[in-house]
TrEMBL record:
One GO cellular component, as annotated: cytosol
Keywords: DNA-binding, Transcription, Transcription regulation
Residue stretches making up the HTH araC/xylS-type domain: 231-329
GO molecular function: DNA-binding transcription factor activity; transcription cis-regulatory region binding
Protein name, as recorded: Transcriptional regulator, AraC family
SMART domains per the UniProt record, alphabetical: HTH_ARAC
Length: 341
């Protein structure tokens, strides 16, 4: 039986479309997903629908170099919490192993990390063997991985081998970005030297990783109806907020229950939807203000606020302080000098 699990289409409809200048509604309509285009809730799709969206974007993209352009923009652009698995790690191997655990949160792709012939090998594939991943999406995975690794290492890391199932033209398209001409292969893969695999990451942040890991595990567990519904709501929110979704309808859809059932179960646990939303936002905001250098505007975006002012008003209501003042106070309490925004 074909995998019927659904996945957030955030990376396609919100991230990739915006970067490429493609109208998300036009993309969904062209991909035969018109009903989803008119939905006011989060767009969740099957693996086949996800790949159909990607193939449609490929056709609609105004840029012939869309894969390297998109790969660089994704790695340097919006804050995507899953990528902290890599940047918070002490080295490449550790980071890639962590990322592999949570890769499916970004879409219907698997990631394998293993040693082969003395090289650290990284492979990407579809979650369902019957629904193959488009070759150009495999190419994108390679570019994003290399760009994220270089940013974390602050070093021009280049794979010693790479490949994906693309034409010679498609492989030439990303050769400059990878620093090597990828071969034509069934698997989308990268291979790195032992020296680069163990190269220290300057972005290592064990304190932030402890919190991020807990949130990502909640995201994976959000579909488990044995968990307390408040915890499942928090996990769903961590997934939905970067896409600008915070509504109870969005969360109920992600959990596979009705809005009324969601609210009833939260009441039974002695809480409310708004309370869980506020606590989740407060916890994540505090984490990013104290453990990262993200700007207030970036934090506001991750938490699905319209703008930094809206976020600042909420944060002041929670703590009695503006975000910048809170960050500076926390830095001073640790004997550090707070950097101005």
């Amino acid at each position: 039986m074909v995998n019927s699990q659904t996945y957030s289409n955030f990376m396609a409809t919100d991230v990739a479309c915006r970067i490429l200048g493609v109208d998300p509604q036009v993309m969904l309509e062209t991909a035969g997903l018109g009903a989803l285009a008119r939905s006011r809730t989060e767009v969740r799709v099957t693996a086949q629908q996800y790949f159909d969206c990607w193939n449609t974007m490929e056709v609609l993209s105004p840029r012939p170099d869309y894969v390297p352009h998109l790969g660089v923009a994704i790695s340097r652009g919006p804050v995507i919490p899953v990528f902290f698995t890599l940047s918070c790690a002490p080295d490449m191997e550790t980071g890639l192993i962590r990322l592999a655990q949570f890769k499916s949160l970004l879409g219907p792709t698997l990631m394998r990390v293993f040693w082969d012939g003395g090289l650290l090998r990284l492979e990407f594939d579809s979650v369902d063997a019957r629904v193959p991943m488009p070759p150009s999406l495999g190419a994108l995975q390679l570019v994003v991985a290399v760009e994220n690794i270089r940013g974390a290492a602050a070093h021009l890391v280049c794979p010693v081998a790479a490949g994906f199932d693309g034409s010679e033209e498609e492989r030439h398209m990303i050769a400059g970005q990878l620093g090597i001409m990828p071969e034509r292969s069934h698997a989308a893969y990268l291979a790195f030297s032992p020296e680069d695999a163990k190269r220290p990451f300057i972005s290592e942040n064990p304190a932030l990783w402890a919190d991020i890991e807990a949130d990502l595990k909640l995201q994976l567990a959000a579909q488990n109806d044995r968990w307390p519904v408040a915890e499942r709501v928090r996990g769903a929110l961590v997934d939905l907020m970067p896409a600008g979704r915070t509504g109870a309808e969005d969360v109920a859809l992600a959990l596979g229950i009705s809005r009324s059932t969601l609210q009833r179960r939260l009441r039974e646990e002695g809480t409310s939807y708004q309370t869980v939303l506020d606590v989740t936002r407060h916890d994540i905001a505090t984490r990013y203000l104290t453990k990262t250098t993200l700007r207030v505007e970036e934090i506001a975006s991750v938490l699905a606020y319209r703008d930094a002012n809206s976020f600042s008003r909420s944060f002041r209501r929670w703590t009695g302080q503006a975000p910048v003042a809170f960050r500076q106070a926390m830095a001073l309490s640790k004997g550090q000098v707070g950097k101005p925004e």
